[in-house]
Specification:
single chain, about 190 residues, mainly beta, five-stranded antiparallel beta sheet, 16 strands, about 0% helix
């Protein structure tokens, strides 16, 4: 969820609330991106509502990623410092994943009208979606990577024009021994409002 104010208050559906995994807050321009997650049940609502305590623009990207997942799946979560300009944003997680079988979700926010689309990601991250909103245009781009060994994930997101940017990443742990199944990222829906 991306807002034009540091005021994201949550995401929910009639199936239940989402849990905040990471807030990426730019207090200089008062913008915020936040990565939320929810371990889904057998049947989930198809409408998700993102809310903010301020009347400002929103962008929302939803991903559905097959598990099974740990009950508390967040392993690593880190927001990088704001970059005042440039056409790349680098995210380097400081820690090492606690297990080999995880999925990493990276998000980068940019503030510039020329960056109205998702371009490239490095280190085997796959672009899943982007969302654009507001004036000046703000965009959030999201990418995922299935991890097959314990490591310190990193990626560089490249975009069109020099802009203020800020990124962050969360890794999610697969269910421990006996969980079975595979982690398969797939875009369910994306929306820019």
């Amino acid at each position: 969820h991306m807002t034009g104010a540091t005021s994201s208050t949550g995401c929910s559906s009639t199936s239940g609330s989402y849990i905040s995994a990471l807030a990426i807050t730019n207090s200089t321009e008062s913008d915020e991106s936040e990565i939320y997650y929810r371990i889904a049940g057998a049947s989930e609502a198809t409408v998700v509502t993102a809310t903010s305590s301020a009347d400002d623009e929103h962008g929302l990207v939803l991903l559905e990623i097959e598990g099974p997942w740990e009950a508390s799946p967040v392993d690593l979560a880190e927001a990088e410092a704001r970059d005042a300009s440039g056409t790349t944003n680098v995210i380097n997680l400081a820690g090492t994943t606690s297990q080999a079988d995880e999925v990493a979700v990276a998000a980068v926010y940019t503030r510039d009208g020329s960056n109205n689309g998702d371009l490239t990601w490095s280190d085997s991250f796959v672009s899943d979606a982007s969302s654009v909103t507001g004036s000046p245009f703000k965009s959030i781009a999201v990418a995922t990577r299935v991890l097959t060994s314990a490591l310190s994930p990193q990626t560089t997101h490249t975009f069109t024009a020099s802009a203020v940017s800020q990124g962050g990443m969360v890794t999610f742990k697969k269910e421990a021994a006996g969980g079975g199944g595979t982690i398969l990222p797939q875009m369910m829906h994306h929306h820019g409002a």
